[in-house]
Amino acid sequence: MTFKPFEDGKPLEVSGTISSLDRRAFLKIGLVVTGAFAGGAVVSAVSAAEKVFPRGSFPEKYPYKPHYCMVIRVDRCIGCRRCVEACVAANAVPDYGWRTLVLEREEQAAIDQRREFIPVLCNQCNNPPCVRACPVRATYKDRKNGIVMMDNRKCIGCKICVAACPYDARYYNEEKGAIDKCDFCFESRLSRGAKSTACAVHCPADVRIFGDLSDPRDRVYRLIHQLQKPVWVLKKEAGARPNVFYMKG
């Protein structure tokens, strides 16, 4: 079994602050979890929110209004990377940086070869290690919507937050002179009236579902709280309590 980034049918050349080893390790983290449900036979006995956030560790009512969240249905991803292209265009991401990626697992079975794709991005954690690590408070969690944001005016480029992030979801943007990361397209779209992120809008397979976790009528709320299909997060053991969830189906 091999692990590698994927782009338009070819291995993706790795550049910037995230090494290929880091990305492969990150990919394995997700696949260890997803592999447990590969057969599709596991049925949740409790809602995904209760499984991800143990009793007492997360408020009964979601603290942000809206509480932005993303559900990624990994089995639907076809590796086209239109989500990545849309993100680059919407947020002026340089060629050495990234706000979202589509990673690939390639498994050689006895009679055929199978590929699985995993979209990854900042998990907009409820308990973000990057925020705690920043010595100048340049990265912070928005008090209204919970998105982990960057204040470029305060950032000194020390990269301590980069090292603290469990998901390798940050890089140093040379043009901005500051650390950059996914903000759920808040600056480029949500703050201007858009209802969803660029990556979700441009996905042809409805892989990425963006919405408000505090609204029981919202699609993401219904997906996360349903009991029929398992839902998981990456690196649960890090204690960051992500707002990006994964599922199949």
What features would you highlight for this structure?
249 residues, alpha+beta, Alpha-Beta Plaits, four-stranded antiparallel sheet, 7 helices, globular, disordered N terminus
List the uncertain runs.
Answer: 1-46
Q: First CA to last CA: what distance?
A: 24 Å
The level-1 CATH class: Alpha Beta
CATH architecture: 2-Layer Sandwich
| Total number of distinct structural domains | 1
What would you report as the Rg, rounded to the nearest angstrom? 17 Å
Q: Characterize the largest beta sheet: strand count, sense, and whether it forms a barrel.
A: 4 strands, antiparallel
Main-sheet strand order equals: 2-1-4-5
Please report the number of helical segments. Answer: 7
Oligomer: single chain
Strand residues, percent: 15-25%
Structural class: alpha+beta
> How much helix, percentage-wise, in residues?
10-25%
- In CATH terms, what is the fold-level topology? Alpha-Beta Plaits
Q: How would you describe the shape?
A: globular
Number of strands: 12
The ordered string of helix (H) and strand (E) elements is: EEHHEHEEHEEHEEHEHEE
Mean pLDDT: 81
How does this model look, in words?
The chain has 249 residues and is α+β, with helices and mostly antiparallel strands. It has one domain: Alpha-Beta Plaits (2-Layer Sandwich), CATH 3.30.70. Helix content is 21%, strand content 23%. It is built from 7 helices and 12 strands. It has helices at residues 20-35, 48-52, 82-91, 129-133, 160-164, 198-201, 219-225, and strands spanning 2-7, 10-11, 68-73, 100-108, 113-121, 139-141, 148-150, 170-173, 178-181, 208-212, 231-232, 244-247. The protein has a 4-stranded antiparallel β-sheet with strand order 2-1-4-5. A hairpin with a 4-residue loop joins β4 (100-108) and β5. It starts with a strand and ends with a strand.
